[in-house]
Specification:
Length: about 400
């Protein structure tokens, strides 16, 4: 058995969703094509690129003029978290007690920020008392009262007020569920100030935002709210929404977004204001792909073994298109395809279109890229599907 074949055979025995080769040097890892040729997987195969994740983390932390905290909800895989840590991320945006517990267990020295505006009393108390979480986001007076009751109103709380924004240009608008409108947010800043070691204001322009000026407009609104509060504010959290490339979406460079953020902050003229950001997609999207197998072709529809109840949730109603490639040589011309997932639910359809060679057929393997963001995180076991394994590749 060759050295490569031995490594791939070992990978085949790995537990589902593990990354058994994540510690290896990138040059020693198999490429996707070789891996599939050996394993011939009949279940979805998640391919993890730790080198890309490290590079993303290093680039963002170097370019953003403030604190970078990774949004764990985007991809909580321990191997992903480790790669981001190796790339320089030391702050983590958590939205639940299990996320807090996971990060605390893997990285005892990490700075954990509980950024969900609505939390259970148990989550507040355990995060603060057992895991040393000091930073909490709120967007209502009742949540502030709950926070003070469950923590005992200590002197080391860092409180951040979530500001609501008007509907913006992002692919996924996040303005409808959380956030206090400016007048209420200013009141909350005044109410929180006596209890906060550090006081901040945050916003989120929406997921996959392609317009850099959206951040500057939000910063202007945050500045107006801070001034209206009449109290000193220490932190401005510009949230997430930093975009990545998809076949139908070409994002601006991160540097262009950072420049608008810096210009917006400079216009506030608030010396000493500390910046935070909560990137998720921008750090992990290109760190993972998924290999699927075609189980049936019907015209330009391909029935595959993964779908909207698995790694391809965002390819369903959200309408995300992902890059796809056939894992064998083909001289056929390109054609647009629709995917159907493996479940019995008729909603398990991904319109795409996904561009592949015209001769794709049953039994072929297709690699679908840019699935590091929300792919694994939204996977279910509906209809008994969803099992698979994860391996590190170069």
């Amino acid at each position: 058995m060759s050295h490569l074949r031995a490594r791939l055979a070992a990978a085949a025995l790995a537990a589902p969703h593990a990354a058994p080769m994540a510690e290896a040097a990138p040059a020693a890892l198999p490429c996707v094509d070789d891996l599939v040729a050996i394993l011939r997987p009949e279940e979805p195969l998640t391919c993890l690129r730790t080198a890309a994740l490290r590079a993303n983390a290093a680039g963002f932390t170097a370019g953003f003029p403030g604190v970078t905290m990774y949004a764990v909800k985007c991809n909580p895989d321990p191997a992903v978290l480790q790669a981001l840590w190796d790339g320089g991320v030391r702050h983590f945006d958590c939205a639940s007690l299990p996320e807090v517990e996971r990060v605390s267990r893997i990285f005892p020295l990490a700075e954990i920020h509980f950024m969900h505006p609505v939390k259970s009393r148990r989550a507040i108390a355990r995060s603060y008392r057992l895991h040393g979480v000091k930073t909490f986001v709120i967007d209502s007076a009742s949540e502030l009262a709950k926070m003070l009751e469950e923590t005992g109103a200590p002197a080391d709380l860092d409180l951040v007020i979530r500001l609501a924004l008007p509907t913006g240009p992002a692919k996924s608008d996040l303005s409808g569920k959380f956030g206090a409108w400016p007048v209420e947010a200013a009141t909350l800043l005044r109410q929180a100030r006596p209890h906060a070691r550090t006081l901040g204001i945050s916003f989120h322009v929406g997921s996959q935002c392609l317009e850099p000026l959206a951040w500057r407009r939000a910063i202007q609104l945050a500045g107006e709210t801070m001034r209206a509060s009449g109290v000193p504010v220490d932190v401005l959290d510009v949230g997430g929404g930093f975009p990545v490339a998809y076949p139908d979406q070409t994002p601006p460079a991160l540097g262009a977004i950072f420049a608008e953020i810096e210009a917006g902050v400079d216009a506030l003229d608030l010396p000493g204001l500390v910046l935070w950001a909560e990137p998720g997609r921008a750090l992990v999207a290109n760190g993972t792909s998924v290999v699927v197998q075609v189980q049936l072709r019907r015209g330009n529809a391909l029935y595959i073994n993964d779908g909207v109840f698995g790694s391809l949730s965002d390819a369903g109603p959200p309408g995300f298109r992902y890059p796809a490639r056939l894992l064998r040589a083909s001289a056929a011309g390109a054609q647009d395809f629709t995917f159907f997932g493996p479940t019995c639910d008729s909603n398990d359809v991904m319109a795409g279109p996904f561009v592949l060679p015209d001769d794709v057929s049953e039994g072929d393997w297709v690699e679908i890229g840019q699935l590091g963001a929300y792919g694994a995180a939204l996977r279910t076991a509906f209809n008994g599907f969803g099992e698979g394994r994860s391996v590190a590749v170069r």
